[in-house]
Q: What sequence folds into this?
């Protein structure tokens, strides 16, 4: 598994009531490179998904499951990153020097926590957001999961494999807008750097997709159109 680190649910839905909930991490999904106009660069992102206990349930394929919430992060543990802040509060301790060199995010799959939810309004719609993540009180039993664990990443997985099909559809749509997915499926380099393109070409998702669909032809320009 390859989400190594050195936002919110879209669509039409009923917002989660504000409050603090016990939660379980059930999903860890690579959502690809996202371009920032402010910084004029791409950065790899991933998403963590939690199921919330006490926030109500929904029925999916005849099964009643807890409501869920998510947050998107950059793959960075620098001191100012949201990921480092949230993981430090979740774990209840700071990272060791060794952990900061290489921390496997798969360690959090199935891990319990507390999540504080607040709601905000944008363009007339109410969205549920994560305000804080904390570890469980000592002695508190781990919540019982209602969701199957979901893991997918570009490096080790394939587009449209079994793991891909287990990803919520709205998260798949987020992935499809990424520069990573667009490069793999259309050959559009977008804002990707040469280094990122080289990295992506080594990924299982890239190799499998190109093997299945064929490489993209290079379109040669007409010499008469060259302005010199």
A:
């Amino acid at each position: 598994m390859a989400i190594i680190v050195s936002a919110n649910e879209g669509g039409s839905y009923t917002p989660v009531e504000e409050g603090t909930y016990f939660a379980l991490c059930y999903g860890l999904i690579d959502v690809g490179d996202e371009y920032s106009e402010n910084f004029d660069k791409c950065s790899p992102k991933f998403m963590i998904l939690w199921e919330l206990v006490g926030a109500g349930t929904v029925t999916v394929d005849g099964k009643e499951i807890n409501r869920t919430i998510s947050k998107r992060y950059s793959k960075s543990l620098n001191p100012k990153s949201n990921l480092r802040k949230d993981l430090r509060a979740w774990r209840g301790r700071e990272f060791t020097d060794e952990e900061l060199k290489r921390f496997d995010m798969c360690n959090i799959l199935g891990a319990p926590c507390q999540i504080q939810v607040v709601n905000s309004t944008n363009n007339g719609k109410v969205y549920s957001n994560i305000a804080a993540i904390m570890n469980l009180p000592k002695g508190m039993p781990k919540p019982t999961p209602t969701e199957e664990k979901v893991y997918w990443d570009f490096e080790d997985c394939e587009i449209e494999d079994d793991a891909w099909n287990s990803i919520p559809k709205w998260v798949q749509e987020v992935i499809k807008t990424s520069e990573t997915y667009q490069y793999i499926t259309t050959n559009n380099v977008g804002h990707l750097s040469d280094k990122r393109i080289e990295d992506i070409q080594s990924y299982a998702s890239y190799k499998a997709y190109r093997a299945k669909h064929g490489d993209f032809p290079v379109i040669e320009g007409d010499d008469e159109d060259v302005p010199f």
Remarks:
- The mean pLDDT is 89.
- The CA atoms of residues 67 and 222 lie 56 Å apart.
- The beta strands are 4-5, 19-36, 41-53, 57-60, 63-66, 68-74, 103-104, 112-122, 125-134, 150-152.
